């Protein structure tokens, strides 16, 4: 395992060496600043770079994951959280979700050792929510895309912007919940294609057309509650599952590879919605395979791994939701 981490670190250094230069970072990610903001962003970048290099040198081997320069390297941790972490969970929502539990019935002995729904064609390409707290919409669309594919045999890219603009119980770029988004999709009569209602990354007036709906759902269920066993059954037997997690840790902003296993991560304080698309086991242990909505420049080409069977690390099994079609 240590040899693997060492090789990964060497690769990160080789590939990302230019990005440690602020001017190269700006050019690579298309960053532009005006006036005093340039000095501000450069200072934040240097502080983040120092954290990344210190972690990779001192902790990466023992923690099992590496950090790197991402498009967020010029943002403070507080700024990043406020901009990108848009899952708005509260006690009343969780109480309602608990009433919607429908655990998948399956014998643990019948579950495959590893699952990756990308290999089955049930997962659309990684998307980018931009500077909008719409992670909840991307998690929702991903779950519906997966179920639509498994029932109809066609993989669609559905409109997140429609939910940002039209889901009346959510708050657009200021956050929302997959459960409420799925309620909207059910009552609205479905979601349009992304090409018909393209993503803009800002809230706007709703202009959906029910006649143009490309995918519909009949309802939604919660796949267990705080149970990794129940989540495993759901991922194996149902398909990609909408999940919430605690993504507030500084390391997650700069995550590059490996199984994200921070020293501290809440199973209750969920602030980011993502999509569980599989699970497996590596030399570093059991993991969940998760799709994010921060472009392919972040993480493992837009994906990341979380520890599996480690006490519901970061809350991935706290509120898993899947639609029915």
From TrEMBL:
A GO term (biological process) for this protein?
proteolysis
Record InterPro entries: Papain-like_cys_pep_sf, Pept_asp_AS, Pept_cys_AS, Pept_his_AS, Peptidase_C1A, Peptidase_C1A_C, Peptidase_C1A_papain-like, Prot_inhib_I29
Return the PROSITE patterns for the record: THIOL_PROTEASE_ASN, THIOL_PROTEASE_CYS, THIOL_PROTEASE_HIS
Every Peptidase C1A papain C-terminal domain range: 111-324
Recorded hits in CDD domains, A to Z, give: Peptidase_C1A
Q: Which SUPFAM superfamilies match?
A: Cysteine proteinases (SSF54001)
Superkingdom of origin organism: Eukaryota
Positions of the Cathepsin propeptide inhibitor domain: 22-80
Enumerate the GO terms in the molecular function aspect: cysteine-type peptidase activity
* Keywords, in A-Z order: Disulfide bond, Hydrolase, Protease, Signal, Thiol protease, Zymogen
Which range is the signal sequence, renumbered to this chain? 1-17
**Stretches that traverse the bilayer:** none
Q: Which family does it belong to?
A: Belongs to the peptidase C1 family.
Q: What is this protein called?
A: Cathepsin L1
């Amino acid at each position: 395992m240590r040899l693997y981490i060492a090789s990964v670190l060497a690769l990160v250094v080789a590939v990302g060496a230019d990005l440690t230069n602020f001017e190269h970072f700006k050019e690579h990610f298309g960053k532009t600043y005006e006036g005093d903001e340039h000095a501000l962003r450069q200072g934040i970048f240097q502080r983040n770079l120092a954290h990344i290099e210190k972690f990779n040198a001192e902790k990466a081997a023992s923690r099992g994951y590496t950090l790197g320069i991402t498009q967020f390297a010029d943002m403070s941790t507080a700024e990043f959280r406020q901009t990108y972490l848009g899952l708005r969970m509260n006690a009343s929502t969780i109480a309602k979700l608990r009433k919607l539990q429908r655990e998948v019935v399956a014998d643990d002995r019948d579950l495959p050792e590893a699952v990756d729904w990308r290999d089955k064609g049930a997962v659309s390409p990684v998307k980018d929510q931009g500077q909008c707290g719409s992670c909840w919409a991307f998690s929702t669309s991903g779950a519906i895309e997966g179920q639509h594919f498994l029932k109809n045999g066609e993989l669609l890219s559905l409109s997140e912007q429609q939910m940002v603009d039209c889901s009346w119980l959510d708050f657009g770029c200021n956050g929302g919940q997959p459960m409420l988004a799925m309620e909207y999709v059910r009552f609205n009569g479905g979601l349009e294609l992304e090409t018909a209602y393209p993503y803009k990354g800002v809230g706007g007036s709703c202009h959906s057309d029910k006649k143009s709906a490309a995918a519909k759902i009949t309802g939604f269920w919660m796949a267990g509650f705080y149970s990794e066993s129940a989540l495993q059954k759901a991922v194996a037997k149902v398909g990609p599952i909408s999940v919430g997690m605690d993504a507030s840790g500084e390391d997650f902003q700069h995550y590059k590879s490996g199984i994200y296993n921070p020293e501290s991560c809440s199973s209750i304080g969920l602030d980011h919605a993502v999509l569980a698309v599989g699970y497996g086991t590596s030399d570093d242990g059991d993991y969940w395979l998760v799709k994010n909505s921060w472009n392919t420049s972040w993480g493992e080409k837009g994906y990341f791994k979380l520890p599996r069977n480690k006490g519901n690390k970061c809350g991935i099994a706290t509120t898993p939701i899947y639609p029915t079609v």
